[in-house]
Write a sequence for this structure.
């Protein structure tokens, strides 16, 4: 199958490219189903799904905290339901819908009883089993200091060791434990990632699937600039003890958390490490408070963040590439094959996108686009251009040829062949995440 990125606009003119008008499309079931069906069956057919095990991977990153979140934080419920019905009409053997949100996410507020009831109704209507699963092994709310471990047994996961094939290997040091992820024990991450060892904890359901459709919400992102097809696959990993997001320290000191060294930032990071080693204990509260005080003394600006939420983050995109590699080429025995092991497609919900402080605190963006692709890198480049971003300054997109050779890719807008430069006429300038002023 040729490589393609198919884009359709959800607006006919700039006058109806507004948050109000675009958000109403989510309530238009017939529009969603027809648009999604037309996109998918330009490239696939009934036989691609018939009798197959299908996995749908939405972006269920976090529960909504305000009204705007309902349209720009997660993949929209109605978008997922429309896709599910399109797939079920092709008579697959089964469908699994799953994700691994952040550990502080309230699952029941994302996957609501109402959504589950509608999924169950579709399952019953088509007489096909549909399972919804939370892939997380651990949950923790820092405000409540209440870690819950081993929610799902390790037997439900495959531990992948990419060894020296990992994109993280070039930045891995033997003498220092630098990898970090917010609100996780730093020493456990060091067990998963060290020179020649790069382990991930991947849900077994991925390897049961014949066809995978990733269903991201298109947003700006603190650590990678943009989140869409590439970044959405992070959710197949069930335990963030295996997910490096940054390297502790300043760029001057071999890290990538912030640009310039500062004694107060160094002390704040050490204090945060202490806190994360003592989650669930009373001392955790004191250490977190002291971390906050020390950080404020460092006088941070938008590019200074304890989670490396800036354009200098040189770790997260590498972890993202590792997980894309596993998703496409990984086998059930924890090995990487030389040939693709499953079909991977992405159907991106950009009807209303997210801008600003994404992925967790986005503002609505009147993007007005849905994309369907089998080339995540070119797809995300196209979406970044439609958001008015300079793709040469987004490392994840600049380095994509390391993961997937670009080659000849069919790029279409409303079924018409175009090239990337043609997208300039349709872009809307999005707010970048705070540490990404370069965009």
């Amino acid at each position: 199958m040729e490589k393609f990125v198919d884009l359709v606009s959800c607006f006919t003119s700039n006058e109806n490219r507004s948050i109000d008008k675009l958000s109403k499309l989510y309530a238009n079931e017939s529009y969603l189903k027809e648009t999604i069906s037309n996109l998918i069956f330009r490239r696939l057919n009934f036989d691609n799904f018939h009798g197959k095990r299908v996995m749908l991977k939405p972006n269920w990153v976090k529960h909504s905290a305000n009204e705007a979140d309902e349209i720009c934080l997660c993949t929209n419920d109605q978008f997922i339901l429309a896709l599910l019905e399109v797939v079920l009409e092709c008579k697959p053997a089964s469908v699994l819908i799953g994700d691994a949100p952040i550990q502080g996410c309230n699952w029941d507020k994302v996957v609501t009883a109402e959504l589950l009831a509608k999924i169950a109704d579709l399952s019953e209507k088509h007489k096909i089993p549909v399972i919804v699963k939370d892939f997380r092994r651990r949950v923790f709310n820092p405000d409540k200091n209440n870690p819950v471990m081993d929610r799902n047994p390790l037997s439900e996961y495959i531990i992948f060791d990419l060894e020296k094939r990992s994109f993280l290997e070039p930045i891995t040091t033997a003498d220092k434990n630098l990898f970090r992820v917010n609100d996780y024990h730093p020493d456990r991450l060091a067990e998963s990632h060290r020179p020649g060892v790069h382990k991930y904890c991947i849900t077994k359901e991925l390897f049961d699937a014949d066809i995978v459709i990733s269903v991201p919400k298109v947003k700006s992102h603190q650590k990678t600039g943009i989140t869409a097809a590439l970044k959405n696959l992070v959710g197949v990993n069930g335990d963030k003890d295996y997910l490096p997001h940054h390297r502790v320290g300043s760029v001057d000191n071999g890290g990538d958390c912030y640009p310039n060294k500062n004694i107060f930032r160094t002390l704040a990071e050490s204090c945060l490490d202490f806190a994360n080693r003592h989650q669930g204990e009373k001392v955790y509260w004191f250490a977190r408070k002291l971390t906050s005080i020390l950080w404020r003394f460092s006088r941070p600006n938008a590019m200074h963040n304890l989670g490396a939420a800036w354009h200098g983050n040189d770790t997260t995109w590498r972890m993202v590439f590792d997980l894309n590699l596993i998703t496409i080429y990984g086998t059930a025995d924890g090995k990487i094959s030389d040939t693709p092991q499953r079909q991977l497609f992405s159907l991106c919900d950009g009807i209303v996108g997210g801008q600003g402080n994404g992925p967790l605190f986005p503002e609505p963006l009147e993007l007005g686009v849905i994309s369907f692709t089998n080339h995540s890198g070119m797809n995300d480049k196209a979406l970044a251009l439609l958001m008015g971003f300079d793709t040469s300054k987004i490392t994840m997109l600049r380095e994509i040829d390391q993961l997937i050779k670009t080659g000849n890719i069919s790029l279409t807008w409303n079924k018409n062949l175009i090239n990337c430069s043609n997208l300039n006429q349709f872009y809307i300038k999005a707010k970048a995440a705070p540490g990404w002023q370069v965009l």
